Amino acid sequence: MSPLTLTLREAPRQRIEMSAFTPGRLAESSAEAIRRLPLWVGNRQVPTGDLFTVDEGTREDLVIRSDSDRLDGIGAGSTRGTIRVEGRAGAYLGRDLRGGSIRVSGDVGIFAGTGMTGGTLHIGGNAGDFLGAAIPGERRGLRGGRIEVYGNAGDRVGDHQRRGLILIAGDAGDYCASRMTAGTILVLGRTGAQTGFAMRRGTILLTAQPRLPPTFNHNGPHALGFLRLFADALATRDGPFSRLDARGITVDRWLGDLANGGQGEVLVWAP
Amino acid sequence: MRLNGIPIDDTFAEAFGMTATRLIITALNPHWARVAGETMTGFATSVIGCGVEAGIESEIPQAETPDGRPGISVLLFAMSGSDLAKQVERRVGQCVLTCPTTAVFSGMASEKPVPLGKSLRFFGDGHQISKQIGGRRFWRVPVMDGEFLCEEMTARTSAVGGGNFLVLARTLPGALAACERAVEAIRRLPDVLLPFPGGIARSGSKVGSKYKALMASTNDAYCPTLRGLVRSRLEAETGAVLEIVINGLTEADVREATRVGVRAVCDLGPDAGVLRISAGNYGGKLGPFHFHLREILT
After folding, report:
1. What is the pLDDT, as a whole number, of residue B283?
2. Chain B residues whose C-beta sits inside 8 Å of any chain A C-beta
3. Residue B84: enclosing H or E segment and its boundaries?
4. Measuring CA to CA, which of B87, B198, B203, B208 is 20 to 30 A from B43?
5. Domain of residue B38, CATH code
6. Residue B172 is part of which domain span?
7. Which of B157, B192, B227 is the last residue of a domain?
């Protein structure tokens, strides 16, 4: 069955809050009701039909066609089904995601995957700052599920991350995994300054030597069996994440942040 | 009924319900995987005294194990979920955690969880690391050879224990050789365990005893040295009887193992000294599973 498709009529000057469009929230809505659904655009409300053309289809598979970076909160709080964005997404993509999957072909804004506890977020382009992080005022970042970024990510990836997996095919910015409590972050490119700053626990997996705070100690080379399980679990993923087994299970290991208990680890595969 | 000239008694083996789990133990090489498996399944012949009946099920090639190393699968059978959980924790903790290079994983999926690394992780004294991979949780416990990788939970399933058949032979060496052959054939099957030493029991038992403290005692009807004293079921020429006890994950597994085992014995033919095949039961009062030999073998 074809997906329910929303196509943006023209690029908005203000930001549009899109969290109403999830498979769960639209399950009982007719196409006409969806066209009448009021959306916040800046500080006024506008019917969806004025902003998007709506093509009827299954509510379990939503497609949003937009080349604007101002559609915020796409898939926020979604619990099931798939949401596909053909183009770009704004801030708060997949915020509080509980289940199902969200795929964006292009770039996404800041705070993607914040508060997420389940499901998968697939970002074909680049992600902004605070990917899977804690938003100001929250004490926990990513708490479950998986985020895949096929481009680069900004600063503060996985800040306060508690659980779950963040995969980045490109580079990550400064303060990657800052204040991390648990979970796993994989960066196949390079990371910026202060990687792992104030992390308590958790794992950062890298392919390039990071710039660590001075409060990390070198732990030496180790063969870690769980890396094989990790690689196998990702073997069905797309692109570079499916070929981790070729890197083997021997890594150079750093422990830190010793200013915060030092139970976190930074693992670096040989290039 | 005769099979290849050997009489098959018109009787049945009586088995009872158990609960079982399978663990996969991997190591640097097959030798150390087997060492861990043999150690953790030692002293595990009967739930009466050992708490659990356990043994190695098969070797697993490295391409098929969770961490890509050589492994073995181990089956453990107990009378209750709590007995099983206690024995899994003790045996993995004392025999696998301690064994160089090993890792241990669940080899079974079901609705009924059994803790595996859940408590063992505390050996890490706070330095243990949890990893959720592919929806399963693992523990990485720091040990002196690196890390002990251990899945948090395994699962258990209802199973069948106590399937059996008796091999009555002219001499003890003849009975032993026939049973060894049966064990070899049965051990090629998946999902079954022969819990007794080398897969063979010589001390088959009957229910009850003249001593109040004992719930089981020697199966006097099949003891050649009691012929003429008790109501013996042995002919004059029977020199020895050995029993093969079979636990299986399902009734069908025990049935198949019985068929394969008896056929392996009977393939030897009457000249090898096997006089009769029988089975142990308690008149149908003990267990709900009845394995009628003649029905299985036809």
Report:
1. 80
2. 66-69, 103, 126-127, 129-134, 138, 140, 146-147, 149
3. helix B81-91
4. B208
5. 3.30.70.520
6. 2-15+160-297
7. B157
